Amino acid sequence: DVKVTQSSRYLVKRTGEKVFLECVQDMDHENMFWYRQDPGLGLRLIYFSYDVKMKEKGDIPEGYSVSREKKERFSLILESASTNQTSMYLCASSPSEIAGRTGELFFGEGSRLTVL
Amino acid sequence: AQSVTQLGSHVSVSEGALVLLRCNYSSSVPPYLFWYVQYPNQGLQLLLKYTTGATLVKGINGFEAEFKKSETSFHLTKPSAHMSDAAEYFCAVSGINDYKLSFGAGTTVTVRA
Q: In angstroms, what separates the C-alpha of B67 from chain A's closest C-alpha?
């Protein structure tokens, strides 16, 4: 069974802390994505990666960075967490066909981050 | 750039009634269109997709959607709602040669017994 695993389902952090959100996929997918989900706003793309060590900014990259040192792992980093980064974060992966061709994004269960 | 608008953030239907979720898209190129479903405390999963070919697309769990280019719409329907259909539904669009999907704001469906 295909799987995208996000390491933490729930996190509570303080303003200014550095936060790491980890995502691992076991499907040998080339493409990986980080989305942020907020009520009434749907999913917004933060960053994506189409290959190891490659990354591209999505629609809302400010305040975030990413790391992809291995094909199966894609990390989202909040260098200095702020309260407006309280949200649900969703990781996804897709196979080597360009996502638009297959549409088959496989999602993790999400990481709900609260910044106090 | 591509974008989608989902009309109605909440839809309430009776069990056995028609489910209709509306999605309109904006795209400068022929779009690829998708519907995803998110059950409580879970990630999203693909319901169905339109890329090319037949404009009526059938998906999982009895859902289907019709691509209407003249109306720039991709509405999702299910003839008879079941309690298990209670979830949040997202419409998404991408262009050709586009890595990413752009999602709508989502529509939450509640099903009344």
A: 15
Percent over 90 (pLDDT), chain B: 74
Nearest residue to B30 via CA among B90, B91, B93, B75: B93
A42 sits in the region (left: phi over 0; alpha: psi -120 to 50; else beta) called: left
pLDDT of residue B99: 73
**Residues near A81 by beta carbon (within 8 Å), at least 6 away in sequence:** A13, A14, A15, A16, A17, A18, A19, A113, A115
Q: Say whether pLDDT at A103 is over 70.
A: no
pLDDT tens digit sequence for A72-87: 999 999 999 999 999 9
Alpha carbon of A25 to those of A1, A70, B5: distances in Å?
11, 11, 30
Q: Which residues of A touch B106 (CB under 8 A)?
A: 40, 42
pLDDT tens string A34-59: 999 999 899 999 999 988 989 999 99
For testing the chain B interface, which of A30, A34, A43 should be mutated: the one with the most B CBs within 10 Å?
A: A43
